[in-house]
Design a protein that fits this description.
433 residues, alpha/beta, 6-stranded mixed β-sheet, Histidinol_DH_CS, Ald_DH/histidinol_DH, histidinol dehydrogenase activity, NAD binding
């Protein structure tokens, strides 16, 4: 029997149960915090020496020099050329779609001129060097290489430095091939907090970057949190999650497999289904029980559904939208007759997948948008990773003498109201002469 929570909005304690289900402790226990603090300090102070130590201790990868942990462009290209033709085609097709989508996100400089001749504008420039972290603990993720590196490449980042764990020195050829396809400039077989530290502070071999993006485990998340400010980060990501809103008319096996697609990531992944038909929820649960034994990662799926899964019965689809907005999911499938209409009521979601023929898995690999999305209800204020994450905006201001005469009195008056006399005099000197 599959162990999965059943909830209904008619229950008097529904709000409390939903909060308990969706709250996420990020795993930064005292033990994690202490270990990460030690690693960051060690790498910052001892550089390559510390990286060699942690590579051997944590990844079982002993080297005489950190340079041995770098895979050069020729190695990545060889991995690409060694792929099965169908694998290579899938990788390159996905990359092309991701690149095409992100080309639409590029921003442009602009300027305007006031009637007095003063010029105002905005200047967009790419970051000079970014680091992308590609996880590799429980699976290989060539898709994460594409989803992180291609938006950076489209943005015009000068140098993309990738780190990825390789326990025992083993890394999937598809990951190396993806680095070649995505335009990664340098790749180091480094993982964990030590990789984040190397990117943030730089060592004798690993260059310091301006921003670090990409998900990881609790140690990686805590390391990113701690180095933020010294470098930029995209987000502190929690476990993967999916919320499906269904009207009860989709094949239950389709929905069961869509829930499995996130639950198989790890035991903390969240898979939720909302439907106004209680009998349909029974059908989906029965489908999951039939299909689960066929899954290679069945034990992970079973644990995830027991810990973080739920089948939620609502009064109607309007209430489903309200519950979805409370959850603010990373991935939201709208498996209903009129998905566009329901989507208009959704205000908080990392990505929305419209209709019965659009599983979230398409978004993970090849639809086009980056699959690096806000988790743990942060879709209330955060956005998917995009080209804009790899650019910075500079404001441009230029005043004519006539413009200074207009702005000067305003600035001086406000400055004096704040008691900042030098500010006021600076403004006044431009028009009071």
């Amino acid at each position: 029997m599959l162990d999965i929570q059943r909830l209904s909005t008619t229950q008097p304690d529904f709000d409390e149960q939903l909060t308990a289900l969706t709250d996420w402790e990020d795993g930064a226990t005292h033990g994690v915090e202490s270990a990460v603090a030690d690693i960051l300090t060690a790498v910052r102070e001892r550089g390559d020496e510390a990286l060699r130590h942690y590579s051997e201790k944590l990844d079982g990868l002993a080297v005489d020099a950190v340079s041995e942990l770098e895979v050069d462009a020729a190695g990545c290209q060889a991995a690409l050329e060694g792929l099965d033709a169908a694998d290579r085609d899938a990788l390159e097709t996905a990359a092309a779609r991701i690149r095409h989508y992100h080309l639409h996100q590029r921003q442009s400089d602009w300027e305007k001129t006031d009637p007095d001749g003063s010029r105002l504008g905005q200047q967009i420039r790419p970051l000079e060097r970014v680091g992308i972290y590609v996880p590799g603990g429980k699976a290989a993720y060539p898709s994460s290489v594409l989803m992180n590196a291609i938006p950076a490449h489209v943005a015009g980042v000068n140098e993309i430095v990738m780190v990825a764990p390789a326990p025992g020195g083993h890394i999937a050829p598809m990951v190396l091939a993806a680095a070649a396809v995505a335009g990664v400039d340098r790749l180091f077989l480094l993982g964990g907090a030590q990789a984040v530290a190397a990117l943030a502070y730089g060592t004798e071999t690993v260059p310091a970057v301006d921003k670090i993006v990409g998900p990881g485990n609790a140690y990686v998340a805590e390391a990113k949190r701690r180095v933020f400010g010294h470098v930029g980060i995209d987000m502190v990501a929690g476990p993967s999650e999916i919320l499906i809103v269904c009207d009860g008319q989709t094949d239950p096996e389709w929905i069961a497999m869509d829930l499995f697609s996130q639950a198989e990531h790890d035991e903390d992944a969240r898979a939720l289904l909302i439907c106004p038909e209680a009998r349909y929820l029974d059908d989906v649960q029965a489908a999951m029980e039939r299909l689960l034994p066929e899954m290679e990662r069945s034990e992970i799926i079973r644990a995830s559904l027991a810990r973080r899964g739920a089948l939620i019965c609502v009064r109607d689809l309007a209430e489903a939208a309200k519950v979805a907005n409370l959850i603010a999911p990373e991935h939201l499938e709208l498996s209903v007759v009129e998905p566009e209409r329901l989507a208009a009521a959704i205000h908080h979601a990392g990505a929305i997948f419209l209709g019965r023929y659009t599983p979230e898995a398409f978004g993970d690999y090849c639809a086009g948008p980056s699959h690096v999305l806000p988790t743990s209800r942060t879709a209330r204020f955060a956005s998917p990773l995009g080209v804009y994450d790899f650019c910075k905006t500079t404001s441009i201001v230029q005043c004519t003498p006539e413009g200074a005469a207009v702005l000067g009195p305003v600035a001086a008056r406000l400055a004096r109201s704040e008691g900042l006399t030098a500010h006021a005099r600076s403004a006044e000197l431009r028009f009071d002469h």
